[in-house]
Design goal:
Elements lengths: L11 E3 L5 E3 L17 E5 L5 E5 L5 E4 L7 H9 L4 H12 L4 H9 L18 E2 L5 H9 L10 E2 L10 E8 L2 E9 L7 E4 L17 E5 L2 H7 L2 E2 L7 H8 L4 E4 L5 H12 L3 E3 L10 H8 L1 H10 L1 E2 L2 H14 L1
Parallel strand pairs: 11-12, 11-13, 13-14
Antiparallel strand pairs: 1-2, 2-3, 3-4, 4-5, 6-7, 7-8, 8-9, 9-10, 14-15
C-alpha cells in the first residue's frame, strides 16, 4: 500500500489517541485560509485503513482495504502529493481484496475439487533462470515481465530447439503437473504444452483475499497480470468447475482475434464475466496491452469493461468481430 506518512508535512505530532496532526492540506481547496495551526489529523486504524479529519474546514476522508478509493480520498491523496498513477494502483489493489467477513464466508463454503492431477517430471537438465541468462531475460523483458515474476526455467544443455526455450512449470498443490515450452527461435510451433485435462494455470498463485480471478487464453498473458490461463481458446467443464470453486468474480479476457470469439461463448455458457477493452488495433491480447500501457492501466481497463450481461457481452463480441 501507499506510504502516506512519507507524503505528510515534516512538521507533525502524534497524540496519545493515535491521531497524527499537521497543517491541514485541504483548507485552501475548500475556500478557507491556509491552516497554520495543525488542525488536520489522520488516524491509521491498521496497516492499511485510515481516516482523515480537518478541524478547520471540516473536510473528511477515509480509506478501507477491500473498497475502492472514493472521491474524497482521491482528493486528499492528490493534495498531499501522491501521483495519480499511485492512486489508481491503490484503488486496483484494494478492489482485489475482500474484507475479513467475506473471506470467512468464502472459507465456509469452499468445496474440495475432485479433479486430480498426476505429478510429472520437468525436462532433463531444467534449471532456474538466473541473472546471467541474458538472452532469456531479454525475451521476458520484451513482454513486460521480469524473471522474478515466476519460476522460469531453461534447458541450455539440451540439444536442438530444446536448448533455446523457456520452460514454465505447471503447479497444483505444490506438485509439478505439467509445463509449457516457449521456443525463442519463433519457428512453428512456438509453444509445446504438456497439459493435463482440466488444468488451469495460475490457480496456485491466486491470493485468498483477492476479489477477482482474471482468466486469459495465453500463459504469458496470465503471468503479466497475476491471472490464470486456460491455454486454449475454449474452457472445458473441469476448468469451469475449478474457477467457480475459487468463489471470486471470474473475468474472462479473450484474445482480440477470431479464436478469442470462441472463448467468449464459453464464458457466457458458464456464467462468467467477460471483458473486451477497446484497445488499439495492434493490441491482440492482454500481454500486448501490458507491454504498451503497463500493468496498472491494463488491469483497470479489464475491470472497467467487465460485464456478466449476455446481451452486453454479445454486443461487444459483434464489435470485436467487425474489428478482426
Amino acid at each position: 500500500m501507499i506510504d502516506i506518512l512519507s507524503y505528510l508535512p515534516a512538521k507533525r505530532k502524534q497524540t496519545s489517541s493515535g491521531w497524527i496532526s499537521f497543517n491541514a492540506v485541504c483548507c485552501t481547496h475548500n475556500g478557507e485560509s491556509q491552516d497554520k495551526r495543525g488542525r488536520g489529523g489522520i488516524l491509521f486504524e491498521n496497516t492499511s485503513d485510515w481516516r482523515y479529519h480537518c478541524f478547520n474546514c471540516n473536510f473528511n476522508a477515509s480509506f478501507t482495504l477491500g473498497k475502492g478509493v472514493n472521491h474524497k480520498a482521491r482528493k486528499l491523496l492528490s493534495w498531499i502529493g501522491v501521483p495519480k498513477t499511485d492512486i489508481d494502483w491503490l484503488n486496483l489493489e484494494s478492489l482485489r481484496h475482500k474484507n475479513l467477513a467475506d473471506i470467512a464466508s468464502d472459507r465456509n463454503k469452499q468445496v474440495v475439487s475432485n479433479i486430480k492431477f498426476k505429478e510429472v517430471d520437468l525436462p532433463d537438465g531444467a534449471k532456474l533462470l538466473e541473472d546471467t541468462d541474458t538472452q532469456y531475460i531479454d525475451y521476458l523483458r520484451q513482454r513486460g515481465i521480469t524473471k522474478d515474476e515466476y519460476a522460469f526455467m531453461i534447458t541450455p544443455q539440451d540439444s536442438g530447439r530444446n536448448a533455446n526455450r523457456i520452460v514454465v512449470p505447471y503447479t497444483n498443490k505444490n506438485k509439478i503437473v505439467g509445463f509449457t515450452s516457449r521456443y525463442l527461435d519463433n519457428k512453428t510451433p512456438k509453444y509445446i504444452n504438456e497439459q493435463q485435462q482440466g488444468y488451469v494455470f495460475g490457480l496456485d498463485l491466486q491470493k485468498e483475499n483477492w476479489k477477482y480471478v482474471i482468466v486469459t487464453e495465453g500463459i504469458f498473458d496470465a503471468i503479466s497480470i497475476s491471472g490464470c490461463a486456460v491455454m486454449h481458446n475454449k474452457i472445458n467443464d473441469q476448468q469451469a468447475q475449478q474457477l467457480k470453486q475459487q468463489y471470486k468474480e471470474v473475468i474472462v479476457v479473450p484474445d482480440q482475434d477470431k479464436a478469442g470469439l470462441k472463448l467468449i461463448d464459453d464464458a457466457i455458457k458458464y456464467g462468467f464475466n467477460v471483458s473486451i477493452p477497446e484497445w488499439q488495433d495492434d493490441i491482440k491480447d492482454v500481454n500486448d496491452a501490458v507491454v504498451k500501457y503497463g500493468k496498472v492501466k491494463t488491469l483497470l481497463d479489464i475491470l472497467q469493461n467487465r460485464s456478466q450481461s449476455s446481451i452486453k457481452i454479445k454486443l461487444a463480441k459483434k464489435t470485436l468481430e467487425r474489428r478482426v
